[in-house]
Specification:
Helix content: over 70%
Number of strands: 0
Oligomer: single chain
Largest sheet: none
Order of helices and strands: HHHHHHH
Radius of gyration: 18 Å
Number of helices: 7
Length: 198
């Protein structure tokens, strides 16, 4: 499990890559081991995800009849949704790497995508935390969430563009593979698992 100093170095490297500075790679572990260790980012994100689950639970209860079930199974379903939204886009990127000829970019994409999630998930937890503690703040928090979402998409594109040596078309395709399945799963899975109010 990477410690906080190491995670800080990874985030610094990712920030440099987002800015187009390839010296950011010097702060990252771009090895096979680094790929597997980067999935520890999910564990680092769990506290922020828990804020999201709490906000979703309150939204669900507010729109369901009294006595609606939101126990451990409900939380485990939310955990599964987050895991699927995290892993499926990376699986698609990996599956298409050889056919589309970007195999050498696969490790940096997976590593940076995973570690980028740490600041992103914590930033996205801020409007959710506000919604939990300030009643009737949905308007403000929705706008803030949208701004953060757009900033995240921009960061993903710029990060992938630097990794892809400024090949805009390839970077656009890779960013779409990372973003679109994430959006589609975020929309469909909560309905499939009964997490949306009826």
């Amino acid at each position: 499990m990477p410690q906080i100093e190491e995670v800080g170095n990874y985030i610094k490297g990712i920030w440099l890559l987002i800015l187009g500075d390839k010296s950011g790679f010097d702060w990252l572990d771009i090895t096979a081991l680094g790929v597997w260790r980067s999935f520890a980012a999910f564990l680092w994100c769990l506290p922020a995800m828990a804020v999201g689950w709490a906000a979703w639970r309150l939204y669900y209860l507010a729109n369901m009849p009294q006595g609606a079930e939101t126990g451990l199974i409900f939380i485990l379903k939310l955990l599964f949704v987050d895991m699927a939204m995290w892993v499926v886009p990376l699986v698609l990127v990996a599956a298409l790497a050889k056919p589309l000829g970007y195999g050498e970019l696969l490790a940096p994409i997976i590593i940076t995508s995973n570690w980028l999630a740490v600041p992103t998930v914590y930033a996205m937890a801020i409007p959710l935390a506000i919604r939990l503690v300030i009643p009737n703040s949905e308007g403000l928090t929705s706008v803030l969430s949208l701004i953060l979402l757009l900033a995240n998409f921009t960061a993903i594109f710029r990060l992938v563009k630097t990794i892809a040596n400024n090949q805009t078309l390839l970077a656009s395709a890779l960013a779409a593979l990372l973003i679109l399945p994430w959006l589609m799963l975020g929309e469909s899975l909560p309905r499939v698992f009964g997490l949306m109010p009826a």
